[in-house]
Structures are given as C-alpha cells and as structure tokens.
C-alpha cells in the first residue's frame, strides 16, 4: 500500500529522499524571520526545493547550504542582487566560494580589530592617566595636583600623537610607578643643577649628555620625544612662567640653562 500524500508531505519532481524542513524551522535555525525567507523565495534568491500539496515551502539540506552562503555575504554587507550573482556564477566552484569567504573574513577581522583598538584608545584618552586616590596623589606629587591641569593639557596638545601616547602609557601607572618616575626626573634635574652650580657651560659635553638623558626619560615614561620636539619643550621652559618657576625653584638660572643644554644637544644630533 502506497503512503498517502498529506498536506505536510513534500512533493517534487522526484521526491528527493533528503530531509526537509518547514519555513518556521529554517527561520529558527538561521535566526531570521519567516518574512525574510518568503522574500528570498519571491525574488528567486532562495527557492525552496520542495513544497507540500498545499503549497507550503519545504527546504532541503541543499537549500540550507545556500542560505548559509546568503547570510554570510549579507553579514558582510553585500546587496541581495550581488549575492545572487555570486552564488549563481556558473564558473564558480565551492573552493572559489570558500577562498572568497576566507579573504573577506580576514579583511573584516582586521577592520574590527582596528575598530576595537580605536575604541580602546578613545576610552583611555578620557582618563587623566593618574589613577590614584587623593592621598596617593599628595604622597607622589606633593601640592601639585595634575588633575587641575588636565583640561589645559588636553586643549593644548590633545590633537597630537604625543598626547595620545602619554595617555595610553600613564593610564596604568601605579603609585609606585609614579614615585619611580618622579625620582628619575629629580635625579636628572639634580645632575643638571649641579653642572650649573659648577659653572659648566650649557653647550658642554656634560650638559648635553644630561639633556639627552632627559629626552630619553620623556620617551620612556610618556611619549616618543624626538630632538626637535625636545627643543620645543626646552623653549617652553623659559616662555611659560609656570615651567620657569618650577626650574628656578630647583636653582636660579636653571630654566634657561636647561633650555640652552637641550638646544645644544638637539643641534649636535640633527646637524647634517
């Protein structure tokens, strides 16, 4: 006795023995709506391989394979007409599709990694970079509060790569890191002040060596400081009264001596 054909029994030209799935099942598998599958059918992008006598769509394993391809290209932003052209290309073979997908995925991963890095840097740029409690900041910086100068610093240099580097590097500094950094800078200033006290010229070998040490300190602790940028900093030490006061408090005449040593050091390293 032959099996009767009911409304849910798929029919086709040869009644393929492959498993078949209803539109609702396929929508659930793929995480899309039934309406989307109906649309794909209507435009000929994904025509079900079988239907019941009542006309209900039934999808075969081959249909699911094609749907997977469609959704892949859609995820990458391909319009439906281009997806159809890719899948219906008579000269394409499965290996060509896999190679294309691999290349596209690799490009997408690289783009997403760059986007993630940009977002991470944006988050870091919103930090002051001195993540200490008020007590710790006082212990490290004394009566100088870097937070009070954060807005001015960002306004003056926020557009520069040096500022962005400094934000990234200092964001994770601990209290001990800041103590070490401040001690290193104090030692450099002490050596420079000692040369000034001894009457050693600012363009001497000794003073230029300390200036170079100062530049390398900035590069290691904050941002890549080339010689020309270092010279700009040196000039600021004598034109910005706050920097001048800081250096003059170390030793009278220190701001100009520091600037002159940095200028001399820059000249010897950048001379053609």
TrEMBL record:
HTH merR-type domain residues: 20-89
Keyword flag Endoplasmic reticulum: no
Assigned keywords, A-Z: Activator, Coiled coil, DNA-binding, Transcription, Transcription regulation
Coiled coil spans: 95-122
InterPro entries: DNA-bd_dom_put_sf, MerR-type_HTH_dom, MerR_fam, TipA-like_antibiotic-bd, TipAS_dom
Protein name per its UniProtKB record: MerR family transcriptional regulator
Biological classification of the source: Bacteria, Bacillati, Actinomycetota, Actinomycetes, Kitasatosporales
